[in-house]
Amino acid sequence: MDATGDSQGQGEIEMSYYSIETEQALLGSILIEPDLIYESVLNPEHFYQEEHRLIYENMLQMKGKQEKIEVVSLVARMGAAVQDIGGVQYLVNLSSTFPMVEQFAKHEQIVKEKFLMRTGMTSIKQLYNDMPDNPRELAAELMSLSESIGDEVRTEGGFRHIKDGLMDHFDQLERKKEHGLASGAKTVGKALDKLTGRWKKQTLNIIAARPSVGKTAFMLNNATEAGKDGMTVAIFSLEQPEVQLLDRMIAAECRIDGENVRDAKLTDDEWSKYTMGLSSLAELEIYIDDKPGRTIQEIRAAVRKLKKKHPELIVFIDYLQLIHGGKKFAGGRNEEVGYISNSLKQMARENDCPVIALAQLSRGVEQRQDKRPMMSDLRESGNIEQDADTITFLYRDDYYNQETEKKNIIECIVAKNREGSVGTAEMANLRQYGKFLDLEVRH
């Protein structure tokens, strides 16, 4: 094919990413029925042609000042700039030649979709020019791009009549009642359940503590409890390999000393417990991904895939600050962690499931007389506090004070609860087993 043919082919490809006629019809409809500007969800940047961006921007300014949008008033507002769009005659032509008012919503959708196509192509070209150093980073960038465009498309749902929502609510209540999931996913403790109202679908729940307090053991106890309650459990372990998690889960389930499990030094009685515990755990729908260095895009993709097969899903992540953002962040690590926490919240929403993420606390805790954690102790907090629906801190007084009266007791301090109360729930912490129990049943 000669150069002319190539040029024509390129032009055909470019044309698929904008529609001048649709933009003209949309602007002409507003000139015919000015109140349509109050229904419009577009921004000037959504228009491909610069002249149309300028016209629409002036229309929005008139909307903000409660001015009626018509050709004469629009010309007066634009002043000399009207010549940049082809003069007064161009506006007259828009209002007389192109208007199809009844198609306004459809035209808006086309303009928005063309904009998303152009944005995607621009991002792909930029990605090509700034090619990452490795295929994993490239995959993360592509998934991030896909998710950002997908999020834009999903925001176009619009209104629903309350009757439809109420019917869905009734169906969900019946289904939850039938399956025993009326209040969300159970936590490992009744007192914590009562305080938090359980872990509800579409929520991001943060469990935070200093190292060695028991975050991972607490997570595994809750994961096992969710599995026993009939849920499918996804565990992303970015810090520890699967075998270490299984050691802990078996010790807690079988009430066997964790060191004996790890070192394979089991008594005859413990072997019996071990065999029974293994059978019990094997029946649960628990899936473990222990690959280190996971990107948030990889996690979202894996959860989306699992959700298709298992509707009643709950996700645990150990831990948030070990997740990679998958791309470069001009604002440094705080911006990256903020992006990750926001992505986890979106993941909970789009998959209609609870997400529980562990988080590390800063060393600032150690420098205070009262070592109980506070919101400001969240390391590289970014938007964690804003995105989370619940934030629970784990605190052991016997970790810091050998003379404490609260030996083998862990405090679950609910510092944020978007839909319920804040306060503290205490649980027994049988550390040799890595087991957490309600205080009244610890014996």
Description:
Helix 2 (about 20-30) packs across helix 5 (about 90-95), helix 11 packs across helix 13 and helix 14 packs parallel to helix 15 (about 330-350). The chain has two domains: about 5-130, DNAb Helicase, Chain A (Orthogonal Bundle); about 175-440, Rossmann fold (3-Layer(aba) Sandwich). The longest helix is centred in the first third of the chain and has 26 residues, at about 105-130. Strand 4, helix 15 and strand 5 (about 355-360) form a beta-alpha-beta unit. It is an alpha/beta fold. Helix content is about 50%, strand content about 10%. The chain contains 17 helices and nine strands. The model is unreliable at about 1-15 (pLDDT under 50). The chain has a nine-stranded mixed β-sheet, with helices on both faces. The protein has helices at about 5-15, 20-30, 50-65, 70-80, 90-95, 105-130, 135-155, 160-180, 190-195, 215-230, 240-255, 260-265, 270-280, 295-310, 330-350, 385, 395-400; strands spanning about 205-210, 230-235, 285-290, 315-320, 355-360, 390-395, 410-415, 425-430, 435-440. It starts with a helix and ends in a 5-residue tail after the last strand. It is elongated, with a radius of gyration of 28 Å.
